[in-house]
Amino acid sequence: MSRVLLTASSVLALAFLCLPALIVIPMSFSSASSLEFPPPGFSLRWYESLLGDPRWLLALQNSVIVALLSSIIALMAGSLAAYGLVRGTFRGRVLIEGVFIAPLVVPSVIIAVALYIFFAQIGLLGTMTGLVIGHTVLGVPYVILVMSVAIRSFDHRIEQVALSLGAPTSTMFRRVLLPNLLPSVFAAWIFALIASFDEVIITHFIAGRYDTVPKRMFNELVLQVNPTITAIATLLIVLSVIAVGIIVLLLRRGGVRMRSLT
Amino acid sequence: MASTRRFPVELGYVLPLLLLMLAMFILPIVLMLARSVTQPEWTIEHYRSLIETSVYLRVLGRTLRIAVITTIACAVLGYPLAYWIRGLSPQRQVLATALVVLPFWISILVRSYAWIVVLGNAGVVNRILLDLGLVGAPVAFLYNELGVIIGTTNVLLPFLVLPLFAAMVRIDDRLLHAAESLGASRGTVFRRVFFPLSLPALAAGSILVFILTFGFFITPAILGGGRVPMVANALDLLINQFARWEAAAALSTVLLVVTLTCFAISRWVGARNATS
After folding, report:
1. Is A196 inside a domain boundary?
2. Residue A25: inside a domain
């Protein structure tokens, strides 16, 4: 009896978790302009209105630019720093790592307020540069977490062999470390890319006139309910699922278990 | 000969990112904290006005209330779910955890939007309730605290379930068998052995949910319809509408202190869990 109750409550909880995704995807193919569920008929009108709207396309373009730039900066600086943290023996490593992970712990809205006031004073408020910097800060923790695990699991002696055979450090990085860690590097990059592409709060505060896809979605949702959102939402879900699939594949190939990340 | 001591090469690798984070993350936060007590001169005025203005107290009180209720809701829904997943076969465990993780990867915006479709006045739930004759008029799920709590619980449930499940898997079955072989009933084994062993993970997960709720911005904005502002929404108004930076800095500091204190507590609970 209690077993049945447990199963029932668990299945309900799982349904509660997955309901939003199950609702949004069919809604995006609805022919009705109201929020009717289940949809009365099939149509692609919301995808047409999405792709036919220059404001959405501009937002998409901004999102892609910001996500690419910030994730690449976070990836390069973050991977190098992760290497230094894992292989180094200098003091203060725990504190430094804490600084790198902190954006994951500190509520985004606090970072947003702090960056708003700071950027307003140094003239970066409402600029692309400021936006990229803000998103880079957010992507750093993911790169540090993924790359630290990957570097720690790579045998230090292989690096030493390369160096002792006369390879300069840069060659060792490029020819030994990077090829071996490539799957994790890609996974870290995708984490940072998604973190930026999904970001709403910091963008809402500091982006000024720049629209990104999530910022535009947020503004539309606060003002009114427009089914075009379901089309972009479905595209984002598809994108997330593809990205997660790639990450899981890459991390598995890289010999890193997802569990060691959490 | 301390002056000739070699500068560690590895520190050089860390330096670019460290400088970036110090300049663009730590410095802005420190300046914001400083602003809350130094504008126009050394003062605690901004904090006093936080306490003396009923609006801020109401927002803080509401945020606290929503965070507590969300935490309880997540624990009540999440504990049985994690326990149930632990009892599944390995393949089904993978499937169930995948379902728990899936919403993690869907934008909070999308998930909040879906609740409008589900819970709105003409939404699925209300139509079913009306058709069944259970209610005479649509139930107002949205644009009030209930709607916000449904949204926050939905977003945060995985944060409780995943670590809790991971901790439950580590509980040795032989302990439970030993208790049973000593004559304890299944209920007693759960109450006296299993539950106490899973309690630290439940506590750590609950604190995590509490912290995360405290900083929520998107869900209250969308599902609260502007009528249920939480701390983060108040910060949005202070910065983007009223340009009251000092008040925003003071309120942010309060939020930061609450968050970091809870985080320290959860680390402490987690560390005790790991050593016991």
Report:
1. yes
2. no
Which pair of structure tokens corresponds to residue A230? Answer: 């379901």
Is the pTM above the cut of 0.95?
no
- How far, rounded to the nearest angstrom, does the alpha carbon of residue A172 sit from its chain's CA centroid? 29
Span B146-199, pLDDT tens digits = 999 999 999 999 999 998 999 999 898 899 999 989 988 888 999 999 999 999
- Asked if B115 has any chain A CB less than 8 Å from its own CB, the reply is yes
Q: Do B22 and A99 touch (CB under 8 A)?
A: yes
CATH code for the domain of A229: 1.10.3720.10
CB atoms under 10 Å from CB of A231, counted, come to 23
Comparing C-alpha atoms, which of B240, B111, B170 is closest to residue A201? B240
The pLDDT of A31-46, averaged and rounded, is 76
Fold of the CATH domain B51-171+199-275:
MetI-like fold (1.10.3720)
The total of structural domains in chain A comes to 1
Q: Residue B41 has which token pair?
A: 């001169």
Torsions phi, psi of B158, nearest 5? -60, -35
Domain range spanning residue A113?
39-261
| Minimal C-alpha gap between B52 and chain A (Å) | 22
* Cβ <8 Å between A205 and B80: no
Is residue B16 less than 8 Å (CB to CB) from chain A? yes
For residue A5, being part of any structural domain is answered with: no
pLDDT number for residue B2: 46
DSSP 3-state assignment of A38? Answer: coil
Q: d(Cα A11, Cα A15) in Å, to the nearest integer? A: 6
Q: Which of B5, B13, B33, B214 is the best residue to mutate to test the A interface, defined by the most A CB atoms within 10 Å of its own CB? A: B13
